[in-house]
Amino acid sequence: MNQKNILPLYEIFIRSKRGLDHKHVGSLHAENSEQALEYARDVYTRRSEGVSIWVVLASDITASQEEDASSFYDPSDDKPYRHAMHYVLPEPINNM
Amino acid sequence: MTHFELSDAELEQRFQQRIDDEQKIEPKDWMPAAYRKNLIRQISQHAHSEVIGMQPEGNWLSRAPTLQRKMILLAKVQDEGGHGLYLYSAAETLGASREEMVDALHEGRAKYASIFNYPTLTWADIGTIGWLVDGAAIVNQISLQRTSYGPYARAMVRICKEESFHQRQGYESLIALVNGSDEQKAMAQDALNRWWWPSLMMFGPHDADSAHSGQSMKWKIKRKSNDSLRQDFVDQTVPQADFLGLHIPDEELKWNEERGHYDFGEIDWEEFARVVNGDGMCNRDRVRHHKKAQDDGAWVRDALRAYEQKKRANAEKAA
Amino acid sequence: MNEAIKTEQSALLNFVLAEADDALILGQRLIEWCYSAPYLEEDLAISNVCLDYLGRANNFYEYASELDTRKRSADQLAMLRDSREFSNLLIHELPIGDFAFTMARQFVLDVFYVEYLAVLMDSTDDRIAGIAAKSAKECDYHLRRSREWILRLGDGTEESHTRLQNGLNELWGYIPELFMQSEAEKQLMAQGVCADRAALQPAWDACVNEVLEQATLTRPDVSWKVSGGREGIHTETHGYLLADMQFLQRAYPGQQW
Q1: Is residue C256 in some structural domain?
Q2: Which chains touch B (3 or more CB pairs under 8 A)?
Q3: Between B64, B82, B301, which is nearest C44 by CB?
Q4: Angle, CA B182 vertex, CA B177 and CA B188 arms, to 5°
Q5: The domain spanning residue A48 has which CATH number?
Q6: What is the CATH number of the domain that holds C34?
Q7: Model confidence over B65-90: pLDDT tens digits?
Q8: pTM for the complete prediction?
Q9: Are A39 and C39 an interchain contact pair (Cβ–Cβ within 8 Å)?
Q10: Has residue C60 been placed in a domain?
Q11: Would you call the peptide bond into B117 cis, given omega within 30 degrees of 0 as the criterion?
């Protein structure tokens, strides 16, 4: 297949029900975002999995890189007080 | 600390540590080139199998005996296409394009499950494929839900959820046949006779002879060995065959009390090699059909692109 | 047959069967794309459309089965009637052709069915109204899809434009039949059971003309037109379609599947 035949790649995000976040479910190829939306319906919601779909051109996503990972995430590692499990509570109320 | 300061050996050690800790590897993580290559090979092969698998079953879509069976089969074949798409999507996170993968399929560099090189000759083949082929695939895919590469594992979770209906519809349609006329029963038995051994072959060579197994297990791309998955499949399938009153075509098949498993006969590995290497009934047809659909669709994809470009140009002019 | 059998059947059964036949025969044709479309995403999309048509057929056959004094099941109606007894309009049975022809057919039918089902939803027959309401929702999506394809292919490349124009030209003489009232429909009109097909033509023309113009296509001006589907007079491909579709029920009569 020749190069010009390649349709752009879109990443697909689906809100499975009202009140939940959109969640990444995979990708597909389409010529534009409208077509990507339509195909997302056919490909990723065949069993009524979604109430809302986002499509994003994969090349438009800026992602953090592995080499950034230490500066991105490590600083949080020393702030355990941000996490619920940091606080030890007595057993009877520990499901808080 | 950045990875520029780490040697490949140190990176690889961290990578392996992550795997040993049961953490998932994600697309942007550092990974050994061989891990990436191995995954692309396995995931694309898996994707091709789903897509090529649409053909033998699709072969009976126009002839399905009832309206319900026709709709069920179409929904199933459509699902296979969807699963192929989820898997291509997972492989694309590794930097392989779908076009490259499909080219490899057309040029014979990439394989797909050999079982789809057998012809579907009667309606009973459709039920039997659902029961055995999807059954075998599910055994494999359940273990792959825990594979170390995140996008592959997530695709597997999704696929497993959808596939449960595939095996059940196949088995249900066989129940109708074995409760039917003598001809229908004979049709079901004949299908089992033809599909049993190829189904066992789906799990691949013995562990000792499997080219990629050792490293794949260490990297947790594969979670269970070929032989152990095959044993799981036999153990779960024999009682299902008994329930149907069908005879599995293996005279050595018997329950081994001591092992707690069924013993079964040896696969005809010569036939396995023959079909893998292209001498199956349908190898050429399957790839030819896939390529023809691609080639016939080239003008459609060209038109899409041209139309989109015109639209953008007009929008820019207007702006 | 079949004039004898047909007059025996009620007008309502004839009407419901015709609706079922239209949907089944088109669904049977669309099946051929399910692993042969221009790319994988389209395989899935076109299969969804196909499933909608098969579902619509099934709903109408179930109702027809209840109306049938000969107590034939939905499957018997679909799988055991011969070509002369099938009353689908010819446009549904034409072979799929290339992707342009298929999309041209989907488009002209989708425009028709969006209008048609909107009327049928108000049928005085609750069962018909219910099936039409369900199908109408599906059809809105079908039209959105096929309309986009007409624009893309019409205003895409020279090749796609030519193919689509040829497809429309090939199709055009089968369209007048969509707007012809069958004998059954003439009988049922007074009770408000069915739609006045001829009355749908202006809306159809307006929508089709607009899209064709936007897609840089020419509305075909052909002098030929054929009809006969409702009377069981079909193209020669129809018999092959049935032979294929009905093979199992014919080869193994009376079995459960």
Answers
A1: no
A2: A, C
A3: B82
A4: 40
A5: 3.10.20.520
A6: 1.20.1260.10
A7: 999 999 999 999 999 999 999 999 99
A8: 0.92
A9: no
A10: yes
A11: no
